Amino acid sequence: MRCYPDKLPAQLKKPLSAVYLIYGDEPLQVQEACDAVRAAARAAGYLSREVISIEQDSDWRELGDTSSTMSLFAEQRLLDLRLPSGKPGRVGGEALRDYCARPADDAILLISAGKIDSAATRSAWFKAVDKVGVTVAIWPLQGNELMNWIERRLKSAKLQPNRDAVRLIAERVEGNMLAAQQEIDKLVLIVDSPLVDADTVLASVVDSSRYSVFDLTGAMLAGDARRVVHIVEVLRGEGVEAAPTLWAIQREVRELGLAAAAVARGVPPNQALSDAGVAPFRHKTMQPVLRRYKPLHWAALLQRCNELDLMVKGRSKGNVWDEITDLCLAVAGKAVKLPRVG
Description:
This protein has 342 residues and is α/β, with parallel strands linked by helices. Helices cover 56% and strands 11% of the residues. The protein has a six-stranded parallel β-sheet, with helices on both faces. Strands 7-8 form a two-stranded parallel sheet. Helix 6 (143-156) runs parallel beside helix 8 (177-190), helix 10 runs antiparallel to helix 11 and helix 12 (242-264) runs parallel beside helix 16 (320-331).
């Protein structure tokens, strides 16, 4: 039978199947699903574990030899078969069909594999596994599914994230859930409070750098061009990622653009800044910046941020850090050519 990843824990509470196939190209979810099967097998008395790594056709003989040999101490066993390519080939396909036709009485076979395409799921070996066992397809999460997963992980680590913090982590890792978990583990180690916002995440990203993203945005808002250029060079030289740096700049530009548009409609500056999400203690700093440009100019800066986001993600060409420098100088009030808006 085929099982969704989120249904696997409930399925493992039932009598265990002879075979489990966990496959996909998202390593963390595959690993955790396999760990769940291993834990269920141990709880059911399958205390012996034998690992079989498949790298070439001759390795398949080990599956047949191992499954046909009784444990020395008559223990129930977990046969942990690793198939990174997800492609057993002709020899492996035959070996899996033979095993599924006569599963070992004293063993559970757990197969962990890489991505298996839709054509392979119609093959004889896959159908044989599906007939006697449980198959679990793992796919990378995207969009809201990824954000919800990150939020659940943060909360399970006793942290209380806001949506901006979750969104920033999701944008940084671009679907890499192992990287997302590493970010969460890092936050657990460094935060002093369970409350996690975007600034907390940014501080975590650059905590080993001589300068932080906050130093850069501060210099940008202050209009200090020389300091902007210096900090960008230090961040780049120390290996700080471009993605969170751009995210911080983009947030400032978005807030200023929203506030500038509101002021143009007659809203008082402090109210406009509050409505745009700017904390009250920053109003004194932000008001002079707000007057630096008209709304259309802030819109052009935001458009440039969106273009750089594509560059950071490798979807357009260019030197990301040079472009970030130009963007910061533009926000700082220095003459840099901007895209036309409207």
